[in-house]
Specification:
With 244 residues, the protein is an alpha/beta fold. The chain is built from seven helices and nine strands; from the N terminus they run βββαβαββαβαβαααβ. α4 links the parallel β7 and β8. The radius of gyration is 18 Å and the shape is globular.
Length: 244
């Protein structure tokens, strides 16, 4: 896909095998440079990690990715569905091809990957699925119709998986990041006048979130501490979503 000023994309992350205090990690995405850099960083920290190049909107590619991860690590305990793109246009200006691309990347990929890991998790006694939503799972936005639709769908898909797979000891939850300081939101601040001040004005914590702010919730949802938590959609937003 060719990127332009309207298109922003983030990396896809797939977490595989739990160990006693860490995890063996498979980083999955289309950008080999980013994936390899992430793997190198994980290895420097002492973790076992691999990079898998795959288009997670393609069913055959997802099946091959799951098979390789299972072969490398022996099992799959945790799946994080984090693929995401956004085309910043109002609904009347959005082309059908752009709508389809966002829905496929943000929502269909989560369906394909979750469906593919389900039998692997079931066979080993359970697992954790963590879907990354957004504040757009809750709020609308004039500039993100497809993105908001996909992220609202992520929450409902999470709830469906939670209901369907609870008997197999698979917990499915969604994390709804607020305004986090990432490459994606840096672009948004450049393109949307006044966004920075509006975010700070609404956020009780009075700051943008940092990547490390996700560490706690991710560890919790990936660990046995959350074995009785499923179907939840948890904001990590400094209080942004509670403001009237």
């Amino acid at each position: 896909m060719t990127a332009d000023k309207h298109l922003v994309e983030v990396q896809y992350v797939f977490i595989a095998q739990k160990q006693e205090r860490s995890a063996a990690v498979a980083i999955v995405g289309r950008n080999a440079v980013k994936s390899d850099a992430a793997v190198a960083e994980l290895k420097q920290r002492g973790a076992k990690a691999i990079s898998v190049i795959a288009d997670v909107t393609d069913k055959a590619a997802v099946a091959a990715m799951v098979e390789r991860t299972k072969t490398e690590f022996g099992r799959i305990d945790i799946l994080v569905n984090n693929a995401g793109i956004n085309v910043r246009k109002p609904p009347h200006a959005l082309a059908l091809e752009e709508w389809d691309s966002v829905i496929a990347t943000n929502l269909t990929s989560a369906f394909l990957c979750s469906q593919a890991v389900y039998p692997v998790m079931k066979a080993t006694g359970g697992g954790k699925i963590i879907n990354i939503g957004s504040m757009m799972s809750i709020f609308g936005a004039s500039f993100a119709p497809a993105y908001a639709a996909s992220k609202g769908g992520i929450v409902q898909f999470t709830r469906s998986c939670a209901c369907a797979w609870a008997a197999d000891n698979i917990q499915a939850n969604a994390v709804l990041p607020g305004w986090i300081d990432t490459d994606l939101t840096k672009r948004a601040r450049k393109e949307i006048d006044g966004l920075h001040d509006r975010v700070l004005g609404r956020t009780p914590a009075a700051r943008w979130g940092a990547i490390d702010d996700f560490a706690g919730i991710a560890v919790f949802l990936a660990s046995p501490a959350s074995d009785f938590v499923t179907g939840s959609a948890i904001p990590v937003d400094g209080g942004y979503s509670i403001m009237g």
